[in-house]
Design a protein that fits this description.
single chain, 314 residues, alpha+beta, Endonuclease, Chain A, 3 domains, four-stranded mixed β-sheet, three-stranded antiparallel β-sheet, 14 helices
Length: 314
């Protein structure tokens, strides 16, 4: 996106800079009056949005972030793109932990930049293939977004983002590998490569992604994900993790999984059916996996042992 295209996009969505207003003949006094009366809303240092446009933004999912991000681009310039956590939020890619609240942008490393409150700028090359402008403003593609997050964050946070993007079908493994190949010398690229190879789109939540990392770090064999099991005629249910050689199932219990008593009873009944068919069933929740991961792993290992003893000839 060049400067002219950016200016036209900003005009269409109702964002305008202080400099543009002054150059168009609006006096400083008039500008302050518009802000005071609410017809113009300040969304960044020297950047404003028309009140009706602000309302339209805020009715969108992620609209407040989009408004602040677009205002930041108006300040930084046309070579900047929304990236990292900001891009992930707008795509709906799940993150580990709460975002910082800053608008994250990426721009060419040679550009000058004076820091502004609430905006963080990464200096990096952005090939055209790594930029998505289909929504009218520049943003890193889902694949580039995941690789950037995986480079800059710890391994488990990268896995959460990568699993989510794959699960949502926003990116494929091949697309992620293509981005890695285009950024061979970027800081953190080795960790990002490990994240991409470990990522699995069958993981359906950050808790499942974290659990997979815990299993790896604790030396457990890699489980199968989302497997239908049990029943002579039709499966009893789909399980989160399954170790076939040990006939052991692990299920993650999210915060709302048992909010419905009927759902909780159905889960207990399903567990009973699975155990009757010779499966070991282990449950754990967010607190277990984040605070006592070694205990989770030990419980699963214990289930492996029960399965072996049951299968041993008497």
């Amino acid at each position: 996106m060049n400067a002219e295209e950016l200016s036209e996009t900003l005009r269409l969505i109702g964002i305008i800079t202080r400099q543009q207003l002054l150059e168009s003949g609006v006096s400083r006094a008039k500008l302050e009056t518009c802000v005071r009366r609410g017809s113009l809303i300040r969304v960044g240092r020297g950047v404003y949005v028309r009140a009706e446009s602000a309302g339209e933004f805020r009715r969108l999912a992620g609209g407040e972030l989009l408004l602040r991000a677009t205002a930041a681009i108006a300040t930084v310039g046309p070579d900047a793109a929304i990236s990292h956590e900001s891009a992930a939020e707008l795509y709906g890619i799940k993150l580990l932990g709460k975002p910082s609240g800053n608008v994250i942008l990426t721009a060419r490393p040679e550009r000058g930049w004076r820091g502004r409150a609430g905006v963080r700028l990464h200096a990096a090359e952005l090939p055209a293939a790594h930029i998505n402008t289909t929504a009218g403003f520049p943003m890193t593609t889902p694949a580039r977004t995941v690789v950037d997050l995986a480079r800059c964050a710890e391994f488990r946070a990268g896995v959460v983002a990568a699993d989510s993007a794959l699960n949502l079908k926003l990116a494929s493994k091949d697309e992620l590998r293509s981005v890695l190949a285009a950024c061979p010398r970027r800081c953190g690229i080795r960790r990002a490569t490990d994240v991409v190879e470990f990522a699995d789109g069958r993981a359906e939540s950050p808790l499942e992604s974290l659990a997979r990392v815990v299993f790896r770090d604790c030396g457990l064999p890699r489980p199968e994900l989302q497997v239908w099991l049990g029943g002579p005629i039709e499966p009893i249910g789909r399980v989160d993790f399954y170790w076939r050689q040990f006939r052991t199932i692990a299920e993650v219990d999210g915060a709302v999984k048992y909010a419905d008593p009927m759902r909780a009873m159905a889960q207990l009944k399903r567990d009973s059916y699975l155990r009757a068919e010779g499966f070991e069933v282990v449950h754990f929740d967010w607190q277990d996996i984040t605070e006592t991961p070694q205990l989770v792993a030990a419980t699963i290992q214990q289930a492996f042992g029960h399965s072996r003893r049951r299968a041993a000839p008497h």
